[in-house]
Specification:
The complex is a heterodimer of chains A (about 260) and B (about 325). With about 260 residues, chain A is α/β, with parallel strands linked by helices. Chain A contains eleven helices and ten strands. In chain A, the strands form two sheets. Chain A has a six-stranded mixed beta sheet. A four-stranded antiparallel beta sheet of chain A has the order 2-1-4-5, covered by helices on one side. In chain A, helix 7 links the parallel strand 7 and strand 8. Chain A is globular, with a radius of gyration of 19 Å. Chain B is mainly alpha-helical. Chain B contains 14 helices and two strands. A two-stranded antiparallel ribbon of chain B has the order 1-2. In chain B, strand 1 and strand 2 form a beta hairpin. The radius of gyration of chain B is 21 Å and the shape is globular. Classes of the chains: A alpha/beta (about 260), B mainly alpha (about 325). Chains A and B meet through helix 2, helix 3, helix 4 and helix 6 of A and helix 7, helix 8, helix 9 and helix 10 of B.
């Protein structure tokens, strides 16, 4: 039984088959990339594995449990947390508060505790881990910055930091470097590697940016027209004829 | 301004406010004291409504929930003849249960659909009151709700709440209790979790917050305090009917919260205070009052959408802008 596996996953919107019979297995501690040209079904795939869509057929299992069709918050409770393509953050709160709110799963926040004043997260001990995460991800200087005043790159980093604060075993990243400049991309790539190396978090990312995926991922799954086209190491994928054709167009269509 | 000097200011000004409210029965006329009691009840109501708004759910049935508390009080105190210390907690719990029954279907809707669906549910309850003479008394409602009393006449601890001063203090105690509890919730982790739902529902869901459950919970807590406000109102005025809990009252509640703002804890307090003062000042213009308040609502929505609580920041921003213009010019 794989750590995370997708079995014959299919999603149809009316007559349109967005994902067709996709299967893949991700091992614990792996950094896996899912790529594909525009319209390949990456976003649909991500929405299926993160619980946003319910598959038409097939299933997704995580640690032996079927998570497809489960509410996102339940999947997060099991330890598989997603991030967003857009900068998703709680804009009225500081960086540290954002991370602190994301720790919510590991606290005993109840109404009674709120009223008698026992769940105040501004207390030192519960802040400690939030500070650790923020500092570890190189955002120590911005701890007390309001989240909406951060640059785009930092906002996306904060998104990952928040996902990390839930103490996940699997991190699902939706286009983690979308809209970033090359410097920001490098920081993000470095950050994802650090997260895996230090905490042993398994990473599954869907990404458009070929170079980032080649640098970061140990294994890559390529989608095209909603189907799995190829799978292998970055070198395998780079030299795979079908992949090159999918990205550049087949020879006969060029001539 | 440093943080510590700000909290000192806050402490001093809240002590002044508390001192005023404690001394009030000696300072104002009996009529004004009744108004002040109603004001305190309205503070509980507005503050409980603000709790709902922290998750982004604005309802149109909060006045109905207050009515549920009031009707429960009327029925339990008059027909069952129970003493207040049983009636009030029971009224709050009944309101909370009704809130739960409202919240379960409502939590499946969002935004405008939620707003309208809450109106429909509220009207349903109001029509139940109108329709059923037993036990709700139909259109005439419930009259002659016994005043609450502590002890019997002649006993040393006897407190007669026919005396409006005593009832005023009774209400004051509950208002302060409500404010303390809701303030603590606002500053707690749970409070932040609820606010996060308003800021970004999808993100909250992704970090493991059960948004549906949280929204139901907020609805119930909010309903509990609306029930408390209703219970106090029933004891205060002694008779209730469905017209006490109509759309007009609901609109006033929304106006308080829009005028004051709901982002900070103090917004609704400022809203209730300023609008109550305007309400009293415009007593001679009674017929024009709905138009006036409508105008105020529109003006605030257009010119100061964050409410009065955002006014200091707006002024600072404006001063800063003119300052820099002068600097560059």
């Amino acid at each position: 039984m794989s750590f995370f596996s997708v079995e014959n996953l299919t999603k149809k919107f009316g007559g349109l088959v967005a994902n067709n019979n996709i299967s893949m297995d991700v091992e614990k501690g792996e950094i896996r990339g899912v790529i594909g040209p525009n319209g390949a079904g990456k976003t649909t795939f991500f929405n299926l594995v993160s619980g946003f869509y319910r598959p038409t057929s097939g299933k997704v299992t995580f640690k032996g449990q079927t998570i497809s069709g489960m509410a996102t918050n339940k999947i997060a409770r099991l330890g598989a947390v997603r991030t967003f393509q857009r900068p998703a953050l709680f804009s009225d709160f500081t960086v540290l508060e954002n991370v602190s709110i994301a720790q919510h799963l590991n606290t005993n926040a109840s109404l009674l505790n709120a009223i008698i004043g026992h769940d105040n997260h501004r207390e030192a001990d519960s802040l400690e881990r939030a500070i650790e995460i923020v500092d570890f991800l190189g955002m120590a200087e911005d701890r007390d910055t309001m989240a909406n005043n951060l640059s785009h790159g930092l906002q996306r980093q904060l998104g990952v930091a928040m996902a990390l604060a839930t103490e996940p075993e699997l991190l699902m990243l939706d286009e983690p470097v979308a809209g970033m400049n090359s410097g920001e991309k490098a920081v993000m790539v470095n950050m994802i590697q650090k997260i895996r190396d230090k905490w042993g978090v398994t990473v599954l990312l869907v990404e458009h940016d070929m170079r980032t995926v080649m640098n970061l991922c140990e294994k890559i799954t390529v989608l095209d027209f909603g189907e799995k086209l190829a799978e292998g190491s970055p070198d395998d994928i780079r030299s795979n004829r079908a992949v090159i054709e999918a990205y550049l167009g087949a020879d006969d269509s060029v001539t | 301004m440093s943080k510590s000097s700000f909290s000192t200011h806050l402490l001093v000004s809240s002590l002044v406010v508390i001192a005023f409210f404690v001394m009030a029965p000696n300072l104002v006329s009996a009529y004004r004291l009744e108004l002040l009691t109603i004001f305190l009840i309205n503070v509980i109501l507005a503050q409980s409504y603000r709790l709902m708004a922290t998750t982004g759910d604005w309802t149109l049935c909060h006045y109905i929930l207050m009515g549920v508390g009031a009707y429960a009080t009327g029925i339990l105190a008059k027909m069952a003849g129970l003493p207040f210390y049983l009636v009030m907690p029971m009224a709050c719990v009944v309101t909370m249960i009704v809130s739960l029954l409202f919240a379960i279907p409502l939590s499946r809707t969002l935004g405008f659909a939620f707003f309208i669906a809450s109106f429909a549910l509220g009207e349903f309850v109001r029509h139940v009151w109108l329709k059923f003479h037993y036990p709700f008394g139909g259109a005439r409602g419930i009259n002659g709700i016994p005043k609450l009393e502590i002890g019997q006449g002649g006993e040393w601890y006897f407190i007669d709440f026919w005396d409006s001063r005593n009832f005023y203090y009774f209400t004051l105690v509950f208002t302060i209790l409500t404010l303390v509890i809701l303030f603590r919730i606002d500053r707690s982790r749970l409070g932040d979790t609820w606010k996060s739902i308003y800021t970004d529902r999808e993100l909250s869901e992704s970090i493991g917050i059960d948004v549906t459950k949280s929204r139901i919970m907020v609805f119930c807590v909010s309903g509990f305090f609306a029930g408390l406000a209703g219970s106090l109102l029933a004891y205060q005025i002694g008779s209730i009917d469905p017209h006490n809990f109509g759309m007009v009252e609901m609109v006033y509640l929304i106006i308080w919260c829009v005028v004051g703002g709901v982002k900070t804890f103090w917004g609704p307090l400022i809203g209730v205070l300023s609008m109550s003062i305007i309400f009293e000042l415009t007593r001679p213009l009674a017929e024009w009052r709905p138009a006036l308040f409508g105008l105020i609502l529109i003006l605030f929505l257009v010119l100061l959408p964050g409410g009065l609580e955002t006014l200091p920041a707006r002024i600072r921003e404006l001063l800063h802008r003119t300052g820099t213009q002068r600097g560059t010019g």
